[in-house]
Amino acid sequence: MAEETEITARFAREELQAGWNERGSPARHFARLLLGAKTDLGCVRENNEDKFEFYIPSDARVLAWRGIALAVSDGMGGHAAGQIASELALKTFIESYYGALTAPVEMALRDAVAAANQAVHTAASVAGREGMGCTLTAAAVRGNELFVAHVGDSRLYLLRDGQLRQLTDDHSWVGEQVRRGALTEEEAELSPFRNVITRAIGTAPSVEPDILREELQTGDTLLLCSDGLSGVVRSEQIEAVLNESGPSEACAQLIRMALDAGGPDNVTVLVARVESIEPLPDEALEDSEDASGALEDASTKPLAKDEPEAPKRRRGLLGSLLHRD
Predict the structure, then answer these.
(1) Residue 189, SS3 per DSSP
(2) Running DSSP on this structure, what letter comes out for residue 170?
(3) Torsions phi, psi of 8, nearest 5?
């Protein structure tokens, strides 16, 4: 059997800017996903500072230009500050990503991370929230393409043909030492500095995300998780669960495994399986200036309380969560 070629591209800012045009182009297909998600307080923490979110457009044109967004965030800062950071980051990220529908996906992701970082950084100026921040690992599934924006040590894994692969690099002290060869994976797991992250949303005026692109196939499974899972459950155990279970059941099992391992942190998992990749209708592929302008206007126009269409537009693009505790 011929070996399959996998494409994973990491973009530096200069490479992205050199290739950016004023407008992107719509995808010609959409991925039909089966989703599951779950978050848990864990066995030690008093507050759950983790958050997950996903956004499923019902408008075929929005789906063609932006796809489906999936995201996980792990807050830090103590008391309620970490929860505020993660919720604010994901809300701002989603709104920004869908706010300029015809920009290239990589540009929109980078701008959405910048908007989330600014929002959290500004909120951290309030007394009692000094130093608050969060991780952000987000995926945009657009046709047969997966785009990832990543800051911090939450993770995104891809399961393909039964094999689990971590796509993101941990922005942590131990993660950097492992990549340099100064620590082994086993040593990193035991290091007292394993929770020290080197890049986060909101802790500085600006942040540089990793931007990745991967080609997707039918049957692929994505796992986004906080380190409450990856820090206590080994990758081979995660692989076995994803191979044996559907998304909803896998989420429940992975949470249970983290709790059985002591549950020292909040734990959050989001699993998405690509059931099929299907053609989009022709009207979703409109590529004229009028079509792009209409999309931009629909995504950014403020909704007045007395506007007749407001209720319909407010709920039109939001997907429903399959599991939320």
Answers:
(1) helix
(2) P
(3) -125, 120
Q: CB neighbours (10 Å) of residue 79?
A: 13
In a 3-state reduction of DSSP, which class is residue 32?
Answer: strand
User: From CA 174, how far away is CA 186, in angstroms rounded?
Assistant: 11
Three-state SS at 79: coil
DSSP H or E run through 97: helix 81-97
- Please report the pLDDT score of residue 77 as a whole number: 77
pLDDT reading at 161 higher than 90: yes
Phi, psi of 43 (to 5 degrees): -100, -5
- Supply the pLDDT for residue 182: 56
The model's pLDDT over 99-142, given as tens digits with 9 standing for 90+, comes to: 978 899 999 999 999 999 999 999 998 887 888 999 999 999 99
Is pLDDT at 270 greater than 60 in this prediction?
yes
CATH 3.60.40.10, domain 8-163+201-286, yes or no? yes
Q: Which residues of 229-252 are buried (b: 16+ CB within 10 A; e: fewer)?
A: bbbbbeeebbbebbeebebbebbb
d(CA 110, CA 211): 8
Please report how the helices 81-97 and 105-123 are oriented relative to each other, as an axis angle in degrees rounded to 10.
150
Q: At what angle do helices 247-260 and 235-244 cross, to 10 degrees?
A: 150
Please say if the pLDDT value at position 60 is more than 70: yes
| Under 8 Å between Cβ of 35 and 115 | no
Tokens 């792009």 appear where? Answer: 292
